[in-house]
Amino acid sequence: MELSRSLRTYGVRLIRTTYRVWHSSTRWISWALNFYGAVEQIRTRLGKNAICLQLPIGKEDEFKGIIDLFEMQAYIYNDDKGDDVTVCEIPEDMKDEAELYHTELVEKICELDDDLMMQYLEGEEPSIEELKKVLRKATCECTAVPVCCGSAYRNKGVQRLLNAVIEFMPAPTDIPSIKGVPIWMEMKCSVTLPMKSRSQLWHSRS
Q: Is residue 80 a contact partner of residue 154, using CB atoms and an 8 Å limit?
């Protein structure tokens, strides 16, 4: 009877724990599937300067492409391999949103460079090359976090993500060289013995 009671108690606790873990995981999965929610968490929870480079067209099973906020063009993926891509105008129902995020993209990058900011305040929008150059410098200095979107499962947006890695992430030549340490400095280290070993060592000496 005690065994069956323990099993029932253990089973209830296991179910409650499993439910809590599942509830927590589904909450984070929903955040991950929500592009805008993920960007907001990068800014609020991680305290990073997230800059959206793209917008998703559709979501989850209806995700079919991305909007490049630099070029202001849409990339529609017609298959699950990412080979058949159509470059076209931004869908009519997303033009206003794309314009809003494009303006935010330009302003956030201009805030990273005084010259670009002066140019922007004078009413002239910097070129794509100028914007990307400043964003790359800020990414290498960890003052900006470019954000892309896509689906590895459907292979949509992966190519654009890899292009962004090449364009904005630091190359080996962008970081200082590794400084070597002489062998004798590596060998010169202090070893702290636990109390039991120290007492045994003391008795052996006495």
A: yes
**Is residue 38 within 8 Å of residue 50, measured between CB atoms?**
no
**Token reading at 67:** 């909007």
Beta carbons of 120 and 102 less than 8 angstroms apart = no
- 145-147 vs 50-52, strand pairing mode: parallel
Q: How many residues does the chain have?
A: 206
SS (H, E, C) the chain: CHHHHHHHHHHHHHHHHHHHHHHHHHHHHHHHHCHHHHHHHHHHCCCCCEEECEEEECCHHHCCEEEECCCCEEEEECCCCCCCEEEECCCHHHHHHHHHHHHHHHHHHHCCCHHHHHHHHCCCCCCHHHHHHHHHHHHHCCCCEEECCCECCCCECHHHHHHHHHHHCCCHHHCCCCCCCCHHHHHCCCCCCCHHHHHHHHHHHC
| CB-based contact 144:46 (threshold 8 Å) | no
Contact status, residue 178 vs residue 64, Cβ threshold 8 Å:
no
Residue 147 banded pLDDT, cuts 50, 70, 90: very high
Q: pLDDT tens digit string along 122-144? A: 999 999 999 999 999 999 999 99
- pTM for the whole thing? 0.69
Is residue 151 very low, low, confident or very high in pLDDT (cuts 50, 70, 90)?
confident
* Contact status, residue 62 vs residue 56, Cβ threshold 8 Å: no
